[in-house]
Design goal:
The chain is built from 15 helices and 11 strands. The protein is α/β, with parallel strands linked by helices. The site of S-adenosylmethionine (SAM) has 19 residues, from loops.
Amino acid sequence: MDISFDTLLQKDSFTKEEIIRLLKASGEQEKALFKRSHDVKLKHIGNKVYFRGLVEFSNICKKDCLYCGIRASNKMVNRYDIADDQILKAAKFAHEHNYGSMVLQAGERSDPAFVDRICQLLKDIKKLSNNELGITISIGEQTKETYQKWFDAGAHRYLLRIESSNPKLYSKIHPDNKEHAHATRLACLKSLQDIGYQTGTGVMIGLPFQTYEDLANDILFMKEFDIDMVGMGPFIEHDQTPLYEYKDDLMNLNDRFRLTLRMISVLRIIMKDINIASATALQAIDPLGREKALKIGANIIMPNITPTQERANYLLYQNKPCIDEGADDCTNCMEARINMADGEIGYGQWGDSLHYKSRR
Ligand code: SAM
Protein backbone atom coordinates (compact mmCIF):
# COMPACT_ATOMS: atom_id res chain seq x y z
CA MET A 1 0.00 0.00 0.00
CA ASP A 2 1.17 3.53 -0.80
CA ILE A 3 2.23 5.64 2.18
CA SER A 4 0.15 8.75 2.82
CA PHE A 5 1.01 11.91 0.89
CA ASP A 6 1.96 13.71 4.10
CA THR A 7 4.36 10.93 5.11
CA LEU A 8 5.83 10.94 1.62
CA LEU A 9 6.49 14.68 1.86
CA GLN A 10 8.58 14.24 4.99
CA LYS A 11 11.10 12.05 3.16
CA ASP A 12 14.37 13.48 1.84
CA SER A 13 14.80 11.15 -1.10
CA PHE A 14 12.31 9.47 -3.37
CA THR A 15 11.97 6.55 -5.73
CA LYS A 16 11.01 7.23 -9.33
CA GLU A 17 7.42 6.20 -8.59
CA GLU A 18 7.28 8.56 -5.62
CA ILE A 19 8.56 11.45 -7.73
CA ILE A 20 5.87 10.74 -10.32
CA ARG A 21 3.27 10.81 -7.57
CA LEU A 22 4.57 14.19 -6.38
CA LEU A 23 4.68 15.57 -9.92
CA LYS A 24 1.04 14.65 -10.39
CA ALA A 25 -0.08 16.35 -7.17
CA SER A 26 -3.00 18.77 -7.42
CA GLY A 27 -5.23 20.81 -5.09
CA GLU A 28 -4.39 20.44 -1.38
CA GLN A 29 -1.59 17.97 -2.10
CA GLU A 30 0.10 20.41 -4.46
CA LYS A 31 -0.21 23.13 -1.81
CA ALA A 32 1.39 20.82 0.78
CA LEU A 33 4.21 20.02 -1.64
CA PHE A 34 4.89 23.73 -2.19
CA LYS A 35 4.80 24.40 1.56
CA ARG A 36 7.34 21.65 2.17
CA SER A 37 9.79 22.91 -0.50
CA HIS A 38 9.37 26.48 0.76
CA ASP A 39 10.29 25.30 4.27
CA VAL A 40 13.27 23.29 2.99
CA LYS A 41 14.52 26.33 1.12
CA LEU A 42 14.26 28.62 4.14
CA LYS A 43 15.94 26.10 6.41
CA HIS A 44 18.85 25.25 4.14
CA ILE A 45 19.61 28.36 2.09
CA GLY A 46 17.45 31.14 3.57
CA ASN A 47 15.31 33.69 1.75
CA LYS A 48 18.09 35.46 -0.18
CA VAL A 49 17.57 35.82 -3.91
CA TYR A 50 20.65 36.43 -6.03
CA PHE A 51 20.78 38.43 -9.24
CA ARG A 52 22.49 37.29 -12.41
CA GLY A 53 22.36 40.17 -14.90
CA LEU A 54 21.66 38.37 -18.18
CA VAL A 55 23.25 39.51 -21.44
CA GLU A 56 22.00 37.57 -24.45
CA PHE A 57 24.81 38.89 -26.58
CA SER A 58 24.23 37.05 -29.85
CA ASN A 59 21.56 34.95 -31.54
CA ILE A 60 23.95 33.57 -34.13
CA CYS A 61 23.87 29.80 -33.71
CA LYS A 62 25.30 26.85 -35.60
CA LYS A 63 22.86 24.42 -33.98
CA ASP A 64 19.46 23.48 -35.33
CA CYS A 65 17.52 22.34 -32.24
CA LEU A 66 13.97 21.58 -33.34
CA TYR A 67 12.35 23.61 -30.52
CA CYS A 68 14.41 26.80 -30.60
CA GLY A 69 13.41 30.05 -32.27
CA ILE A 70 17.03 31.05 -33.02
CA ARG A 71 17.97 27.71 -34.66
CA ALA A 72 20.33 28.09 -37.62
CA SER A 73 17.67 27.19 -40.20
CA ASN A 74 15.25 29.88 -39.09
CA LYS A 75 15.78 32.43 -41.85
CA MET A 76 13.14 34.80 -40.43
CA VAL A 77 15.41 35.82 -37.51
CA ASN A 78 17.38 39.07 -37.64
CA ARG A 79 20.78 37.89 -36.50
CA TYR A 80 22.80 40.15 -34.20
CA ASP A 81 26.06 40.08 -32.30
CA ILE A 82 26.42 42.82 -29.71
CA ALA A 83 29.73 44.71 -29.87
CA ASP A 84 32.18 44.04 -27.05
CA ASP A 85 32.01 47.61 -25.74
CA GLN A 86 28.22 47.23 -25.37
CA ILE A 87 28.64 43.95 -23.48
CA LEU A 88 31.19 45.61 -21.20
CA LYS A 89 28.79 48.49 -20.67
CA ALA A 90 26.13 46.02 -19.55
CA ALA A 91 28.69 44.39 -17.21
CA LYS A 92 29.48 47.80 -15.78
CA PHE A 93 25.79 48.40 -15.23
CA ALA A 94 25.51 45.08 -13.36
CA HIS A 95 28.53 45.94 -11.23
CA GLU A 96 27.42 49.48 -10.46
CA HIS A 97 23.96 48.28 -9.51
CA ASN A 98 25.40 45.69 -7.14
CA TYR A 99 24.08 42.70 -9.04
CA GLY A 100 26.88 40.50 -7.77
CA SER A 101 26.95 38.36 -10.90
CA MET A 102 26.16 38.27 -14.57
CA VAL A 103 25.41 35.65 -17.21
CA LEU A 104 26.76 35.72 -20.74
CA GLN A 105 24.46 33.71 -22.96
CA ALA A 106 24.36 33.27 -26.73
CA GLY A 107 23.71 30.90 -29.56
CA GLU A 108 26.43 28.33 -30.05
CA ARG A 109 29.66 29.05 -31.94
CA SER A 110 33.08 27.58 -31.43
CA ASP A 111 35.40 29.05 -34.06
CA PRO A 112 38.81 30.09 -32.68
CA ALA A 113 38.12 33.83 -33.04
CA PHE A 114 34.93 33.43 -31.00
CA VAL A 115 36.68 31.40 -28.30
CA ASP A 116 39.40 34.06 -27.98
CA ARG A 117 36.85 36.84 -27.95
CA ILE A 118 35.03 35.28 -24.99
CA CYS A 119 38.36 34.90 -23.15
CA GLN A 120 39.09 38.59 -23.63
CA LEU A 121 35.58 39.62 -22.58
CA LEU A 122 35.83 37.55 -19.40
CA LYS A 123 39.17 39.14 -18.53
CA ASP A 124 37.81 42.62 -19.27
CA ILE A 125 34.73 42.07 -17.11
CA LYS A 126 36.87 40.85 -14.24
CA LYS A 127 39.10 43.90 -14.63
CA LEU A 128 36.36 46.53 -14.86
CA SER A 129 34.69 45.10 -11.76
CA ASN A 130 37.89 44.63 -9.68
CA ASN A 131 37.14 40.90 -9.73
CA GLU A 132 33.90 41.63 -7.92
CA LEU A 133 31.42 40.46 -10.53
CA GLY A 134 30.81 36.70 -10.65
CA ILE A 135 30.38 35.33 -14.18
CA THR A 136 28.23 32.45 -15.44
CA ILE A 137 28.47 31.49 -19.09
CA SER A 138 26.00 29.59 -21.19
CA ILE A 139 27.27 29.16 -24.72
CA GLY A 140 26.56 25.51 -25.37
CA GLU A 141 28.82 22.61 -26.22
CA GLN A 142 32.54 23.31 -26.49
CA THR A 143 35.75 21.29 -26.25
CA LYS A 144 37.25 20.69 -22.82
CA GLU A 145 40.16 22.96 -23.83
CA THR A 146 37.76 25.81 -24.55
CA TYR A 147 35.93 25.31 -21.25
CA GLN A 148 39.31 25.34 -19.49
CA LYS A 149 40.38 28.56 -21.28
CA TRP A 150 37.17 30.32 -20.28
CA PHE A 151 37.49 29.06 -16.70
CA ASP A 152 41.07 30.35 -16.54
CA ALA A 153 39.89 33.69 -17.94
CA GLY A 154 37.43 34.17 -15.07
CA ALA A 155 34.16 32.29 -15.61
CA HIS A 156 33.28 30.14 -12.64
CA ARG A 157 29.80 28.86 -13.42
CA TYR A 158 28.45 27.22 -16.57
CA LEU A 159 24.89 26.47 -17.51
CA LEU A 160 24.31 23.72 -20.07
CA ARG A 161 20.85 22.21 -20.02
CA ILE A 162 20.72 18.52 -20.79
CA GLU A 163 17.22 19.35 -22.18
CA SER A 164 16.15 15.77 -21.42
CA SER A 165 18.03 12.99 -19.66
CA ASN A 166 16.29 10.48 -21.95
CA PRO A 167 18.44 9.99 -25.08
CA LYS A 168 15.40 8.81 -27.05
CA LEU A 169 13.41 11.93 -26.25
CA TYR A 170 16.51 14.05 -26.89
CA SER A 171 16.80 12.56 -30.37
CA LYS A 172 13.18 13.46 -31.12
CA ILE A 173 13.73 17.14 -30.35
CA HIS A 174 17.07 17.48 -32.13
CA PRO A 175 18.23 16.73 -35.67
CA ASP A 176 19.66 13.27 -36.10
CA ASN A 177 23.36 14.06 -36.62
CA LYS A 178 26.55 14.15 -34.61
CA GLU A 179 26.31 17.91 -34.01
CA HIS A 180 23.30 17.13 -31.82
CA ALA A 181 24.31 14.03 -29.86
CA HIS A 182 23.07 13.40 -26.34
CA ALA A 183 26.36 11.69 -25.47
CA THR A 184 28.30 14.85 -26.38
CA ARG A 185 26.09 17.00 -24.18
CA LEU A 186 26.65 14.62 -21.30
CA ALA A 187 30.41 14.56 -21.90
CA CYS A 188 30.42 18.38 -21.90
CA LEU A 189 28.70 18.47 -18.52
CA LYS A 190 31.30 16.04 -17.21
CA SER A 191 34.17 18.20 -18.53
CA LEU A 192 32.68 21.29 -16.88
CA GLN A 193 32.45 19.50 -13.57
CA ASP A 194 36.00 18.09 -13.88
CA ILE A 195 37.43 21.53 -14.61
CA GLY A 196 35.86 22.90 -11.45
CA TYR A 197 32.98 25.01 -12.71
CA GLN A 198 29.86 25.31 -10.63
CA THR A 199 27.94 23.18 -13.05
CA GLY A 200 24.35 23.87 -13.96
CA THR A 201 21.93 21.95 -16.08
CA GLY A 202 18.20 21.75 -16.65
CA VAL A 203 15.39 20.52 -18.86
CA MET A 204 12.37 21.86 -20.69
CA ILE A 205 9.06 20.81 -19.22
CA GLY A 206 6.02 19.95 -21.29
CA LEU A 207 7.85 18.92 -24.45
CA PRO A 208 6.02 16.87 -27.04
CA PHE A 209 6.55 13.11 -26.39
CA GLN A 210 7.68 13.78 -22.78
CA THR A 211 6.20 11.61 -20.01
CA TYR A 212 6.04 11.95 -16.22
CA GLU A 213 8.55 9.14 -16.07
CA ASP A 214 10.96 11.17 -18.22
CA LEU A 215 10.65 14.11 -15.83
CA ALA A 216 11.14 11.91 -12.76
CA ASN A 217 14.25 10.50 -14.43
CA ASP A 218 15.45 14.05 -15.12
CA ILE A 219 15.30 14.80 -11.41
CA LEU A 220 17.10 11.57 -10.56
CA PHE A 221 19.71 12.41 -13.20
CA MET A 222 20.39 15.80 -11.59
CA LYS A 223 20.80 14.16 -8.21
CA GLU A 224 23.02 11.42 -9.58
CA PHE A 225 25.17 13.88 -11.52
CA ASP A 226 25.45 15.95 -8.37
CA ILE A 227 24.82 19.24 -10.14
CA ASP A 228 25.29 22.58 -8.38
CA MET A 229 22.71 24.69 -10.17
CA VAL A 230 19.56 24.24 -12.21
CA GLY A 231 17.66 26.31 -14.71
CA MET A 232 14.58 24.55 -15.95
CA GLY A 233 11.46 26.00 -17.45
CA PRO A 234 8.35 25.26 -19.45
CA PHE A 235 8.69 24.46 -23.13
CA ILE A 236 6.93 27.17 -25.14
CA GLU A 237 6.27 26.46 -28.78
CA HIS A 238 7.57 28.77 -31.51
CA ASP A 239 5.79 28.81 -34.84
CA GLN A 240 9.03 29.06 -36.84
CA THR A 241 10.34 25.73 -35.53
CA PRO A 242 9.68 22.11 -36.57
CA LEU A 243 8.26 21.12 -33.14
CA TYR A 244 5.39 23.55 -33.71
CA GLU A 245 3.79 20.75 -35.68
CA TYR A 246 2.95 19.08 -32.35
CA LYS A 247 1.34 22.13 -30.74
CA ASP A 248 -2.05 20.43 -30.47
CA ASP A 249 -0.58 17.49 -28.54
CA LEU A 250 0.94 19.66 -25.80
CA MET A 251 -0.30 20.13 -22.26
CA ASN A 252 -1.98 23.53 -21.98
CA LEU A 253 0.35 26.38 -20.95
CA ASN A 254 -1.07 26.66 -17.46
CA ASP A 255 -0.49 22.93 -16.84
CA ARG A 256 3.08 23.24 -18.11
CA PHE A 257 3.55 26.15 -15.73
CA ARG A 258 2.21 24.25 -12.69
CA LEU A 259 4.24 21.19 -13.58
CA THR A 260 7.38 23.32 -13.74
CA LEU A 261 6.65 24.62 -10.24
CA ARG A 262 6.22 21.03 -9.01
CA MET A 263 9.52 20.03 -10.66
CA ILE A 264 11.28 22.90 -8.84
CA SER A 265 9.57 21.95 -5.61
CA VAL A 266 10.53 18.26 -5.75
CA LEU A 267 14.10 19.07 -6.75
CA ARG A 268 14.43 21.53 -3.85
CA ILE A 269 13.32 18.83 -1.38
CA ILE A 270 15.86 16.37 -2.80
CA MET A 271 18.77 18.77 -3.44
CA LYS A 272 18.44 21.18 -0.57
CA ASP A 273 21.43 23.44 -1.08
CA ILE A 274 21.73 23.85 -4.86
CA ASN A 275 20.99 27.09 -6.69
CA ILE A 276 17.73 26.98 -8.63
CA ALA A 277 16.99 29.70 -11.17
CA SER A 278 13.52 31.03 -11.70
CA ALA A 279 13.29 30.75 -15.50
CA THR A 280 12.19 33.70 -17.61
CA ALA A 281 9.89 31.36 -19.57
CA LEU A 282 7.71 31.12 -16.44
CA GLN A 283 6.94 34.80 -16.77
CA ALA A 284 5.93 34.31 -20.39
CA ILE A 285 3.01 32.24 -19.11
CA ASP A 286 2.13 34.01 -15.85
CA PRO A 287 3.14 37.64 -15.17
CA LEU A 288 4.03 36.59 -11.61
CA GLY A 289 5.53 33.29 -12.68
CA ARG A 290 9.07 33.90 -11.53
CA GLU A 291 7.97 35.16 -8.12
CA LYS A 292 5.86 32.05 -7.63
CA ALA A 293 8.91 29.92 -8.36
CA LEU A 294 11.00 31.91 -5.86
CA LYS A 295 8.41 31.35 -3.20
CA ILE A 296 8.39 27.58 -3.56
CA GLY A 297 12.09 26.87 -3.93
CA ALA A 298 14.05 28.88 -6.51
CA ASN A 299 16.69 31.38 -5.31
CA ILE A 300 18.21 32.88 -8.45
CA ILE A 301 16.76 35.42 -10.84
CA MET A 302 18.24 36.69 -14.07
CA PRO A 303 17.22 40.29 -14.82
CA ASN A 304 17.70 40.94 -18.50
CA ILE A 305 20.36 43.60 -19.06
CA THR A 306 20.80 43.00 -22.79
CA PRO A 307 20.72 46.34 -24.66
CA THR A 308 17.01 46.85 -25.39
CA GLN A 309 17.26 47.20 -29.15
CA GLU A 310 18.43 43.58 -29.51
CA ARG A 311 16.09 41.87 -27.05
CA ALA A 312 13.31 41.34 -29.54
CA ASN A 313 15.67 39.25 -31.67
CA TYR A 314 16.51 36.70 -28.97
CA LEU A 315 13.18 34.97 -29.16
CA LEU A 316 13.69 31.33 -28.23
CA TYR A 317 9.92 31.08 -27.80
CA GLN A 318 6.96 33.36 -28.35
CA ASN A 319 5.49 35.85 -25.88
CA LYS A 320 8.88 36.44 -24.23
CA PRO A 321 8.53 39.08 -21.45
CA CYS A 322 10.47 42.34 -20.89
CA ILE A 323 11.74 42.71 -24.45
CA ASP A 324 10.98 46.41 -24.53
CA GLU A 325 12.24 47.47 -21.11
CA GLY A 326 15.59 49.07 -20.35
CA ALA A 327 17.80 47.45 -17.71
CA ASP A 328 16.87 50.08 -15.12
CA ASP A 329 13.16 49.41 -15.48
CA CYS A 330 13.90 45.75 -15.14
CA THR A 331 15.77 46.21 -11.83
CA ASN A 332 13.09 48.37 -10.21
CA CYS A 333 10.35 46.02 -11.22
CA MET A 334 12.37 43.04 -10.01
CA GLU A 335 12.96 44.47 -6.55
CA ALA A 336 9.25 45.02 -5.94
CA ARG A 337 8.43 41.57 -7.22
CA ILE A 338 10.98 39.81 -5.04
CA ASN A 339 9.79 41.60 -1.93
CA MET A 340 6.32 40.43 -2.81
CA ALA A 341 7.58 36.86 -2.82
CA ASP A 342 9.04 37.34 0.72
CA GLY A 343 12.55 37.29 -0.71
CA GLU A 344 15.46 39.56 0.05
CA ILE A 345 17.94 40.48 -2.67
CA GLY A 346 21.53 39.46 -1.99
CA TYR A 347 22.97 42.68 -3.44
CA GLY A 348 26.67 42.68 -4.21
CA GLN A 349 27.10 38.98 -3.41
CA TRP A 350 28.01 36.17 -5.77
CA GLY A 351 25.46 33.88 -4.23
CA ASP A 352 27.46 30.79 -5.12
CA SER A 353 25.90 27.37 -4.85
CA LEU A 354 26.30 26.12 -1.28
CA HIS A 355 26.17 22.64 -2.71
CA TYR A 356 29.31 23.34 -4.75
CA LYS A 357 31.11 24.46 -1.62
CA SER A 358 30.16 21.37 0.37
CA ARG A 359 30.79 19.05 -2.62
CA ARG A 360 34.36 20.38 -2.90
N1 SAM B 1 23.46 27.95 -26.85
C1 SAM B 1 23.38 27.75 -25.44
C2 SAM B 1 22.92 26.35 -25.09
O1 SAM B 1 22.54 25.62 -25.99
O2 SAM B 1 23.02 25.99 -23.93
C3 SAM B 1 22.55 28.77 -24.73
C4 SAM B 1 21.37 29.32 -25.47
S1 SAM B 1 19.99 28.21 -25.58
C5 SAM B 1 18.94 29.13 -26.64
C6 SAM B 1 19.31 28.34 -23.95
C7 SAM B 1 18.15 27.43 -23.61
O3 SAM B 1 16.95 27.92 -24.17
C8 SAM B 1 18.22 26.02 -24.08
O4 SAM B 1 19.01 25.24 -23.25
C9 SAM B 1 16.74 25.59 -24.07
O5 SAM B 1 16.43 24.78 -22.97
C10 SAM B 1 15.98 26.92 -23.99
N2 SAM B 1 14.97 27.01 -25.06
C11 SAM B 1 15.17 27.02 -26.38
N3 SAM B 1 14.00 27.01 -27.05
C12 SAM B 1 13.01 26.99 -26.12
C13 SAM B 1 11.59 26.96 -26.16
N4 SAM B 1 10.94 26.94 -27.33
N5 SAM B 1 10.90 26.96 -25.00
C14 SAM B 1 11.55 26.99 -23.82
N6 SAM B 1 12.90 27.01 -23.71
C15 SAM B 1 13.63 27.01 -24.84
